[in-house]
Structures are given as structure tokens and as C-alpha cells.
Amino acid sequence: PRQAGAPACATLESMRRFDVGERRARLARRHLLVPGHAAADVLAATDALVCLHATDPSTVCLSAWARVDRMTVADVEKALYVDRRLVRHLCMRRTLFVFRPELFGVVQAAASRRVADQERRRLAKEVPMLGTLLKKETDVATVNELLRRTKGRAA
Fold first, then answer.
1. Cβ atoms within 10 A of the Cβ of 30, count?
2. Mean pLDDT, the chain, as a whole number?
3. How many CB atoms lie within 10 A of CB 99?
């Protein structure tokens, strides 16, 4: 039974339906891709999306440029390297994310720990091959010790 004052549950017949065109339009607006709905600056664009997604360093600028009117590469660089209000982080499938530093722990837990473990295992397989390149046997032992100590830790 429904509690007094609680709204009635919607039925499938009474729920508003969105067609593909409307869903796409809403998504484009939410992602700041519709003219007249641009973000004020790179920080606002990043906040609206949680993070900017990139496949390489230059696409961070392209992602911001699509969402911020009159944005320059210098604006992105200033936010990243001068003001340090944004950070770059390599995550799953070697994808680059740019987001506020406060979100680092969340993003790392959600998208990086598994990658760190995979990279650690890959490096561990390559250590024996490094023996021929490194000058001392102790260098190989040092790398192996670092791998052992970091196993299971977030990178």
C-alpha cells in the first residue's frame, strides 16, 4: 500500500517517451555541444562533464575547444600547468582524462587501478630482458623489488 501523500507510481503507459532525436539533442546540450550552451571556460566545461576525455594530449584541447567559446590552447595549458586547477591522468585503455584534482581518488579507483596492475605485470615480464641492457645485476634486482613492493597498490 502507498503511504499517505506519496505520489502515485507512473505506469509505462503514463511515462513520457523520448524519441532518438530528442535524446540526442538533450545529450548534445548536456555535453555543451549546442550553440548558445557553451561553458564559460575550461574549468566550467570540465566540471559539467566530470572530465575531458582524450586519446592523446592534443585531443584534450579539441574537447575543450568544442565546448568553450573563444578558448585557446593557452587557456588549457594555464589550467593544467600554471594554476594547476586541472590534472591529466592516464586511465583505462591508455586513455587520458583531464579533471579537477579533487576527483583524483575517484577517477583512479574507477578507471586506473586495473591498468596499473596490467602495466606492472607487463613490466615484470620485461625485467629479465632489461638485464642485458642494464649495467649492473643490482639494477634488475632493484626493479624486481619495486615491482614486488608496489604489487596490489594503486599506481
1. 12
2. 82
3. 20
Residue 101 is classified by DSSP as G
pTM, two decimals, is: 0.65
DSSP class of 51: S
Contacts made by residues 32-37, CB under 8 angstroms, sequence distance 24+: 32/66, 32/67, 32/68, 33/66, 33/67
**Model pLDDT, residue 151:** 65
Provide the grid cell at 154: 594503486
**Cross-strand bridge partners of residue 68:** 39
Count Cβ atoms below 10 Å from residue 49 Cβ, excluding itself.
Answer: 18
- Four-CA torsion 15, 17, 18, 19, nearest 10 degrees: 170
Is the pLDDT assigned to residue 3 strictly greater than 60?
yes
What is the pLDDT, as a whole number, of residue 66?
A: 94
Q: How many CB atoms lie within 10 A of CB 141?
A: 13
Q: Tell me the pLDDT tens digit for each residue of 98-147.
A: 999 999 988 888 877 777 777 778 877 776 766 655 555 556 667 667 66
Closest to 120 (Cα-Cα) out of 88, 74, 152, 83: 152
Within the chain, strands assigned E span 52-54, 87-90, 96-99
